[in-house]
């Protein structure tokens, strides 16, 4: 199996150890809205996200910087909060109505999760919210009310060649992807793409609420950790401009992987590491997924075009490194080890290459062989 398999439904069976489905209906999630990350040097992080990447400062004080992208009309898409340990404090989703917050409370209390209601003003720019430690150990947040700010879509006097226009998605590391997917489907998400092997091991899955490839993805590994948060640009050339700017500033060490085109999602991509090592993806031009019968794409873990459509190798740090996440007291969550096969070990051999498609070596296509 080398070509991706296309079906019309989630191809990942729910596991025997699945998290029970609550009888309470799930909150109606509109989209991923913002991430709150803890940074150890607020000035250094501000310089990276504002001076280099060009995110817009909505508000700031000595403890935190609230940033948004150019097409955003809500208060922020990223909060940089000063703290002792680089980690993620919240993956935050906007819900459709204020009543959806009550649904979130009931949904997670039924799952036995720690749930906190936070009143307006706890986080600048948003109203009442619900924060939970979800069954996978991630700090999830839900909110509806939000302060509107100027949408800078038409402010071409302010936009730069590498302009970041939207928050696109989160990516989470969790040890048991099928267990995570079953819970996320209960929460109302739909699978759009996944990576499996012929034995049925699932290595990663992409899930959406808004009609793009994803609002979040689950990547198999020791977790809970945050793999990356992704911002969208309008065009591929905006990503090239970011690379050129980083080079001109002698900051190319921040580039971890890419630029390139993904197989999964078909998007053009670039991965950066911020001053604390938090991973940021710049992402553009995936596809519409909003029809009820949107085809689901399953990639073979041995297809070297799944992670990079041009077949370029994935650097090992991309598989191994990720950010810690915090519990509701602000303490780092301990990690649970993945016991299924890891994608890195399956696809990057002792030679350090990721070109492992079955049969290719015999055909002389393996990197390092003479054609
Ligand atoms: Fe991504």
From TrEMBL:
Keywords on record = Aromatic hydrocarbons catabolism, Dioxygenase, Iron, Metal-binding, Oxidoreductase
Q: Where is the VOC domain?
A: 31-145, 166-285
SUPFAM superfamilies named in the record: Glyoxalase/Bleomycin resistance protein/Dihydroxybiphenyl dioxygenase
Annotated stretches, region: Disordered: 1-20
Report the cofactors: Fe(2+)
Bilayer-spanning residue ranges = none
UniProt cross-references to InterPro entries, sorted A to Z: DHPA_dOase_Mn/Fe, Glyas_Bleomycin-R_OHBP_Dase, Glyas_Fos-R_dOase_dom, GlyoxalaseI/FosfomycinResist, HPCD_C_sf, VOC_core, Xdiol_ring_cleave_dOase_1/2
Question: Is-annotated flag, keyword Iron?
Answer: yes
Q: Name the PROSITE patterns on file.
A: EXTRADIOL_DIOXYGENAS, VOC
Query: PANTHER family in the record, alphabetically?
Result: GLYOXALASE FAMILY PROTEIN
Of which family is this protein a member? Belongs to the extradiol ring-cleavage dioxygenase family.
Protein's UniProt name:
3,4-dihydroxyphenylacetate 2,3-dioxygenase
| Organism name | Agromyces salentinus
